[in-house]
Amino acid sequence: MNSNYSIEKYLRPGKHSETLLINQLSQLRTDNNQNVFKFGFGQSPFPVPEKITQHLAEAAHRKEYMSVQGHLPLRQAIASFHHDMENKNWDHEQIIVGAGSKILLYCIMAAFAKAEVLLPAPSWVSYEPQAKLAGHNVEWLTTHFDQQWQLTPETLECFCQARENQETPLILVFNYPSNPTGQSYSSEQLQRLAKVMRKYKIIVIADEIYSLLSYDKEYCTLEDFYPEGCIVSSGLSKWCGAGGWRLGFHHIPKQLGHAFFQAVIGVASETYSCAPSPIQVAATHAYENQTLAKSFLQKQIGLLKEISLYCSNRLRESGINIHDAQGGFYLFPDFSPFSKQLFKRNISTGEQLTGALMEETGVALLPGSAFGMPESSLTTRLAFVDFDGSQIWVAENEKAEFDKVKQGIEKLCDWLGSL
Ligand code: PLP
Fold first, then answer.
1. Phi and psi (nearest 5°) for 45?
2. Strand pairing of 203-207 and 170-175?
3. Which mutation among 102, 130, 366 tests ligand 1's pocket best, with the greatest number of atoms within 8 A of CB?
4. First CA to last CA across the chain, in angstroms?
5. What whole-number distance in Å separates Cα of residue 92 and Cα of residue 304?
6. pLDDT, tens digit, 9 for 90 and up, residues 194-240
7. Which of 33, 71, 194, 214 could be cross-linked to 280 through a Cys-Cys bond (beta carbons 3.0 to 4.6 Å apart)?
8. How far apart are CA 106 and CA 117, in angstroms?
9. Which residue in 292, 308, 303 sits closest to 399, CA to CA?
């Protein structure tokens, strides 16, 4: 073989996930003793409840492979938990458990030899690369600030009507409360969208990973209006503060057929085999202990709502276009009202904006372009969870310290004032 032989040209044109990159940049500043406000990388600031970690310790000896579909008591506990918390009517036989919901999203896409994947812009960073890994084309649907960055039935209808090959399965990944925008849909909006989805037989993955962290009681699900085509994706990562445990699940409606379910199980079996057994056992307890879950959720929601409102109000005051978050860990500030001042400073893309902010203030945000927005969009994602949530279990003092988040927001506002 030629000694100059290089494998590089055979590699996929993958890009390093921008969320991880910003985390590394933040770390670099920290290592240099420079202040960093880590609003780039969003993971739960809250610790897994101690009772649940004890169950995990007790299950450490569970070394056997479990079934690909998932531990039966866990699937039963998930169905019952989501019935009581969110009024879902799931058959545990239609639930598949995975090592995080992310790999299951990939399994759904990879179950199709051919499909088209549809994403509202902005959407979570991993949907597009996953669709491409599975060999599918991705189409982006535009959304607007004035419409809360939400997909409208008109935009969806327009896309579906114009599709060349109506036969190719169409998968829409639809996430609420949204990462990155923090927005959710009303039942009326979901009802109108469901009509279009039904008309074009769209396979929808409703990514409800943040649903239990919705701030208001009126949480609505697409499944109520489009049960036959709606796969629900969720897991332990967000509500239970257990992202690194890697435990997620999908509920796949029976109406999508046995062959489809088996195809998904097939991809799961050839990739991750089963979610880790000790984690599945501990997760069963987490889903069974609803009293614990309810008090944990109530505390988290109170804190998340308080800090998110502080941030959105303060940023709005300083002239940024922003909507209050309705759930989860994120806000989506749009700096376009400052486009003229930014342009004078040679900032005309989201990436230049977040780069300048990081360099001049230590505030780490991610550009909207990481979520499918155009390069020129001056939108950003702000994860307001750079605080120590471990005090959540300190009964006398449930207040988490938000000082660091508040300082970062002030830095950002000062910077805007100086433009
Ligand atoms: N979907 C969204 C919108 C997310 O933000 C994340 C995690 O960041 C996931 C899915 C993946 O979650 P999991 O930890 O279950 O793989």
1. -85, -5
2. parallel
3. 102
4. 58
5. 31
6. 999 999 999 999 999 999 999 987 779 999 999 999 999 999 999 99
7. 71
8. 12
9. 303
Distance 97 CA to ligand 1 centre (A): 14
List, chain by chain if needed, residues with CB within 6 Å of any ligand 1 atom: 100-102, 124, 175, 179, 207, 209, 235, 237, 243, 248
Type of residue at 106:
Y
Task: Tell me how far CA of residue 374 lies from CA of 102, 121, 176, 341, 365, in angstroms.
Answer: 24, 9, 21, 20, 16
How do residues 42-74 score in pLDDT, each as one tens digit? 899 999 999 999 999 999 999 999 999 999 999
φ, ψ of residue 121 in degrees (nearest 5)? -100, 120
* Cα dihedral 193, 119, 40, 369 in deg (nearest 10): -120
Here the tokens at position 215 are 């701030």
Domains (ranges, CATH) in the chain?
12-41+292-417 (3.90.1150.10), 50-288 (3.40.640.10)
Tell me the two tokens of residue 265: 């199980």
